[in-house]
Amino acid sequence: MIEFVFGVDDLARTSFAYSPLQEAAFSLRAWRDPVRYPHMRPWLRRMRPVYDRLDRQVLDAMVTRRLWIPDCLTPRPSSARPTFAAELALFRATGPEVLAAGLRDAYGDEVFPAVLSGDPERLRARVADALEAYWTGCLSGEWWARVQSLFEADLAHRGRVLAEEGVEALFAGLDPRLSWDGQRAVLQLGRPGNLGGWWQRSVPVAGRGMVLCPTLFARGAQPLCTPDLPPALFYPSRGRAVLAESVAKQPLDDGHRPLVRLLGAPRARLLLLLAEPASTTELAHRLGVTAGAVSQHLRVLHEAGLLTRTRAGRSVRYRRSELGDGVCGGG
């Protein structure tokens, strides 16, 4: 068990954030073990022709047989919503020995691929170039738009849980193995399987706060602890199955006929989708239509009082209102 010991101000300094570089690196796990990540399979099929033209030797080598990845490729976000370009620039500026040490730690007693040997500085540049090409060719468009929308919805949900149910419910909702001891101000994370003595630790948060990061590529909370930085927990984002969803051609069932007669099929489908917050871009991707068409329908639904909207960073997110829930029958 790992214990995170909170000081007086640490809960107030605990924040949520997400990292595009982290998700790019974690997504490489899906190429090695697609069965483990069913929500990625449709995307892997679509990305395959581009991925096969990239520097696969080095990209594949970033993931070990145990699906471990060097820590320097899964950074703590420096802000709530950093850009991939900013995070990659930080990686390019790190000492090449950081990548070398991270690879040694990740591989442990596994066979070290030959592609990772040689000059560390050249390797760092090659890894950075490969990741940039992978991001540009496979991830930066529709995939990241949908993932970012899922993360924004996840963060909005966690904020509501914290406001309405408190910190104990917040942590328990991230992973059932997490438990909050309010009397001692200690967050406990139970051990998954046999990870040896490393998992028996007490980590003082010590005025640094904690960073909580949603990801599509974890089955449970994963800690990241280094002495000079705030501790971080990566946890499974809500709504991962939606990533594999293609709703554009799915018919509305018979139970939705009254809603279709009232609103028309496009607006009925939008209202049903908005049980969880989503942006115009995400809805357009999921429905296979233009953002302009979605925006017109959202405006009408919002003016009718069926939707609420809030700004999250640069994005406006829509969600069914109480009235909208009632029109949909609460579901």
UniProtKB/TrEMBL annotation:
Stretches assigned to the HTH arsR-type domain: 247-331
Top-level taxon of the source organism: Bacteria
Organism: Streptomyces gossypii
Keywords annotated in UniProt: DNA-binding, Transcription, Transcription regulation
CDD domains xref list: HTH_ARSR (cd00090)
Signal peptide extent: none
Protein name as it appears in the record: Helix-turn-helix domain-containing protein
